[in-house]
Amino acid sequence: MSVTDVLATGAEFAPVLIVLGSALLAFLLDVVGVRRLEAVGGVVVAGTGVAFLLVLADLGLGFLGPLRTIPAATVNAVPAAGASPLYAFTSFGLVFQALFLVAAFLVGLASLSRDSHEAGAPIFYGLLGLATVGMLLVAVASDLIFLLLAVEVTSLATYLLVGYTRRGARPLEAAMKFYIIGAASSTLSFFGASLLYGAYGTTNLYRIAAVAGGVGYPVLALLGYGFLIAGLAFKTTLVPFHAWAVDVYDGAPTDVSAFLAGGSKKVGVFAFFLVFLGPVLYVHPGAPGNPFSGGPIALGPIVQLTLAVLAVLTMTVGNVLALLQREMKRLLAYSSISQAGYILLGIAIGTSPALAGATFQALAHVLSKGAAFLVVAGVAGLGVGPLVDDWRGLGSRRPLTCAAFSLLLLSLAGVPLTIGFVSKFVLFSAAVEAQGYFVWLAVAGLLNSALSVFYYARILRAMYFEAPAGGDAGAPPLTSRLAAGGLGYGRAAAIAVATLAVVALGIYPQPVLGPIQAAATHFLGLGA
Amino acid sequence: MIGLATIAFAVLAGVAVLTAVAALLVRELVHTILWIALFFVDLSAIYFLLEAPFLGVLQLGVYAGAVTVLLLFGIMVTRKRIFSREAATGLGPAPVALALLTFVFVVAAVGELPSGPSALQVYAPSDLSAALFGTYGPWVLILGIIMLTSVSGAIYLVREGRE
Amino acid sequence: MTGLPEAGFVGLSAALVAVGLFGILTRRNFVLLLIAIEIAMNAAILNFVYFAAFAPTPGEGLAGQAAAVVLVGFAATEVAVGLAIVLALNRAKGTINVAEATELRL
User: Is A127 near chain B, with CB under 8 Å?
Assistant: First the structure.
């Protein structure tokens, strides 16, 4: 396939091209002198919105059928034996595309409300669009180099996003730390990919699976997977590779933190799914010399156990450190680390219900944590300080905002009637179903959820049951030039949409959970 | 029998490791740049030895040329005095141990490879370009998007202008 | 052409990635960190080149050479972004020592 062929078959890449086009348009508008927030931001937000609808159509959701850009047969096809495409459209990848677009759309929409028309709008929206392009490409990858390069599009865009305000040293320091960690981890990933290439003579994930079925897993390949795990664990903020995340989320502009926690972290999650589930653990379970399925050294159970230990460690460390935090952004950042642990649990268990649970958990995290960061950014714009204690008494002064924030926190804690409960329920029941020590993983997850309730409850108590330090009269005034209670229409709309989705999917998850379960089942069957 | 190519490789490999270590350990930052430039040139010679002339030239142009200049430029602009020193940092046992462990692990894979001399595949540059812009065209397209992202963001970060 | 030992190349790239890792873990100056990362990156590129050279079929080998070309381009781009961040930070603050960047704590 040549470059022109790729361009000619642009239809299936329509969502990617639309987002790419909108990002370029944002830069072009800047060049010709149009720097209005509404114009620049509107283009990218509209682009992600349209792309989202197209992806939903490709997933075969009801009335959007006519918008389909990929034939249904292609989406759920199993690649022919011997085929080694660089990319493949699977329903599981499309689910993640939709998830990435939701994150980009919400953050873009919320950022339309800024307290002034800052100079940074074009670059913010341009980079947001380009980061989204990288995420969309990750979701269709079926080749290691394609995957890692697409991850790098997102990484480079987000390093720059963290520092885009150029105001003060703090965001730029966060950007520098993010860059060093990110560049080092991507180097490890590429080194791992090169070893896998040496071991199997191909970088294609399906081919690797097929060749591994024959020749087994030489030391070179195992080393390659080891380097890949380390590189991807950095991107996914797994303990012990998590230390950078809190600093970066704390130092970045809060809207960017929302995008990092809600969106770009899921890139690492999807890469994990792609690299480890499809080809490695489940292909050729009975092949001779496949250490992942018994045989002389039963590596499969060992890999699973390692991932399970990492998952429990990540949950627990994230939650315990969150308990100790007094600053709102750092607390949410640590809670974000612990959420990555729940998602990893799904990979460790590795059955199709667990995969669906992990994906649904990722969606829950995009909606709840992303929107929670957006609320924090909005409230900071009102003049409220960075500490949890600064939120005292806010419940009566900003009832709607605080009600939405409470619902998002309850969802993160996993309280019934929210999406967070449903996702954890699916995930933990998959763990119980898988029997063995996985039952204990469910117990660990439950205990961790209980632990997390403490710090979410502390925020709720501060908002509703405590008075500001100097009494109601002594509280600093909440001032903002923006409409909609000082949040601005865009931010208010983004928070409202996310909160409604959190509750609606908590009560009636089936319309979304059903397709995710089908996609997960198909994904696990891909290489079989 | 040890061939000429093997001897050349042994020398080049030794120089590569030595220059890499020297680049990280010398105190003067400008000397670091000299060592790393030598390292890049040395690797380029290894690519020529491997009958991959296109990559050898690319390594010379991009790494020994552009990247070295970028790094030198970074040192010059960010330090008031150009002959500045790296803050003294201990060599702590843990990083050394981790690095050694990595080395041992990767070398452990050597046993699986043929230890004797093996024949080299030689690729015509035309075949490489056909592969690069044919089969592997999507990689190049993504690289294009990466460069677009970097350039637009980097220009914005470093340009003077209104805040 | 006299043959080359494939095993020697594995040793070289292992040594280079170890040196790179060591640099990433011990150096605190941003430019030195960049150099350490580039050394490790060169180990990955070297891997692709020699695995391509020793590949059993030309088709397999071309994938490795193509990957090496793309990675060289990517690494240069990455360095450029790093320097942009450093220049902006240098202007805002006047230090590029990662240990001195103390406004964020762990």
Answer: yes
